[in-house]
Write a structure and sequence with these properties.
This protein has 560 residues and is α/β, with parallel strands linked by helices. 36% of the residues lie in helices and 19% in strands. The strands form six sheets. Strands 1, 2, 3, 4, 5, 6, 14, 15, 16, 17, 18 and 19 form a twelve-stranded mixed beta sheet that branches. A hairpin with a 5-residue loop joins strand 24 and strand 25.
Length: 560
């Protein structure tokens, strides 16, 4: 859009209200806030306890088709929908994830929305915010330090240094740290062994923070982290190293949800931030449940496409926390659907009905998946100036065929005003009957659960297992029946319904290959790694970090 201001220009020209004023509108007392400057605050447990018996509002999940280089605008739509709810007189609170520094300085950019539908202060949210990710990094790496110190100080537990499972983390994309050797140097520098780094958002500690409902739950989950095996093949847990309490002390403030506002002063909770391609991809249970207490409508999102974030939101988070969405919004763009139809990014602005008809099968599969969960669906078509009436008619025709409502969303350019039709249709969808059903029951075996997700959600014909994956499953099952009952968290490319990022649209006649399986006993799920999926991304040739700067007055530029 020629002459349209950048996201950071819009954010810096927006007029924010003091966060105490936003909190007051929600019935939050000053003593129930912990301020981080004028425009950010944490909500402490006293408010949560005081409102424990308050009835819940309706939960709305925003998800999307598989992401493409053309962009879909899921977070922007989530923020815009919350703003539009206020426009139609509805009391709504948005619940989002915190951005990771990895994509902020990498290729994807920030995750605070876009255009006139952003959460503010955008610069703070995309950078250090309230320090939650730093606390998670510190807690994670404290455990790593204690593991290696235990081995060095005599190894009373008999930890096999070749079978240490818990990795160090940092919240930047640093491919050089994927595989490292530690303990080099003098005898006093530790026991040499191979180690690894993951990005902080992939840490089990991040998942635990997002799923824990209290300090006591947090400590129990931290203690349950499976960190290693001994020489005689016995499991070693974090609790065996007596460090869960110290980790919880580092995380006690990070456990509290963060309150901010949108460009239109709509309240928003931003808390936690696991990636949906390598973790469960949802904001914290505490923030979601708090949003349900604060408003008649709680609007949250799950990462990447519905095959990843939404599936994990429903099968992991809702299962664990007892949540039931009233409606699901699937965000799509005509550009992205044409890309799924085989059109290169450079040609997406031109009308191409045939390519759209070919690629719209991706949207169709995501609609079917959400309907398979028994939930009402609204398709939010994130509109661009280049979309033509003929192309919009193709999307409308598909939605009519699948029995779902579609709304043209213009929240990027118009803020809440551009989402009024979407808000009205979502409110209507929330009143429709639903029959929420999970993809698999707890009682299924690990392989049966993997097969259920692969065939029902991805559309695969079956599943293949590398020998290492089959052995890992057997090792988990040997630990006890309790672990076999955990839900699965599939690490898979976000770009395709399959495990091959180049298979666009709606792939057919493919199998999912499982190369490894890991138990996250603290998070209470089983991570299933498919294809070539990295838990430590790398930087591109021209990272965003090259273009971010700050002037002498402290004004940041280059963030997007």
């Amino acid at each position: 859009m020629a002459g349209f201001p950048t996201d950071i220009e819009i954010a810096q020209n927006s007029v924010m209200k003091p966060i105490t004023e936003i909190a007051s509108q929600l019935g939050i007392e000053p003593e129930e806030l912990e301020l981080y400057g004028r425009y950010k605050a944490k909500i402490n447990d006293s408010f949560i306890k005081r409102n424990a018996d308050r009835p819940d509002g309706k939960l709305i999940l925003v998800t999307a088709i598989n992401p493409t280089p053309a962009g879909e605008g899921k977070t922007t739509t989530t923020v815009g929908l919350g703003q539009a709810m206020a426009k139609i007189g509805k009391n709504a609170v948005i619940a989002l994830r915190e951005p990771s520094l990895g994509p902020v300085f990498g290729v994807k950019g920030g995750a605070a929305g876009g255009g006139y539908s952003q959460v503010l202060p955008m610069e703070d949210i995309n950078l250090h915010f309230t320090g939650d990710f730093h606390a998670i990094t510190a807690a994670n790496n404290l455990l790593c330090a204690v593991i290696d110190n235990h081995i060095y100080q005599g190894n009373k537990l008999g930890i096999d240094q070749r079978r240490v499972l818990f990795s160090r983390v940092t919240d930047t994309n640093d491919r050089a740290l994927r595989n490292i050797v530690i303990g080099m140097g003098k005898k006093t520098d530790g026991i040499p062994r191979e180690d690894h780094f993951m990005i902080t958002v992939a840490s089990e500690v991040m998942a635990i923070l997002c799923l824990a409902e209290s300090i006591s739950d947090l400590k129990e989950r931290l203690g349950n982290i499976l960190v290693a095996y001994t020489y005689d093949n016995k499991p070693v847990y974090c609790r065996d190293l007596n460090v869960a309490g110290s980790m919880a002390a580092l995380l006690k403030d990070a456990l509290k949800p963060n309150l901010v506002q949108t460009t239109e002063n709509t309240p928003a909770l931003i808390h936690g931030g696991p990636f949906a391609n390598i973790a469960h991809g949802c904001n914290s249970v505490r923030a979601t449940k708090l949003a349900l207490k604060l408003a008649d409508y709680a609007i949250t999102e799950a990462g990447f496409g519905a095959d990843l974030g939404a599936e994990k939101f429903l099968d992991i988070k809702c299962r664990a926390a007892g949540l039931t969405p009233s409606a699901v919004v699937i965000v799509a763009t005509i550009r992205a659907l044409k890309y799924n139809g085989g059109i290169p990014k450079t040609e997406l602005k031109a009308e191409n009905v045939e390519a759209l008809k070919k690629g719209i099968c991706n949207l169709e599969k995501h609609i079917e998946n959400i309907q398979g969960f028994g939930l009402p669906v609204v398709v939010a078509l994130n509109r661009f100036d280049t979309d033509t009436d003929a192309e919009i008619a193709v999307v409308q025709e598909l939605c009519d065929k699948k029995g779902v409502t579609v709304s043209l969303s213009e929240v990027f350019a118009k803020g809440g005003e551009g989402g009024i039709d979407l808000a009205n249709k979502v409110v209507e969808a929330c009143e429709k009957p639903s029959n929420f059903t999970l993809t698999y029951p707890d009682e299924m075996s690990i392989k049966e659960k993997i097969n259920a997700v692969a065939t029902k959600i991805y559309g695969a014909t079956g599943v293949k297992y590398d020998a290492s994956a089959s052995k890992a499953i057997a090792d988990i099952e040997a630990l006890g029946e309790e672990y076999s009952r955990y839900p699965i968290c599939v690490a898979k490319t976000q770009y395709s319904l399959s495990d091959d990022m180049y298979k666009l649209g709606r792939p057919e006649n493919f199998e999912i290959t499982i190369r490894d399986v890991k138990l996250s006993a603290g998070a209470k799920f089983i991570v299933v790694l498919t294809g070539v999926i990295l838990t430590m991304p790398g930087l591109p040739a021209d990272p965003a970090a090259y273009h971010i700067d700050v002037d002498n007055d402290g004004n940041i530029t280059g963030l997007f």
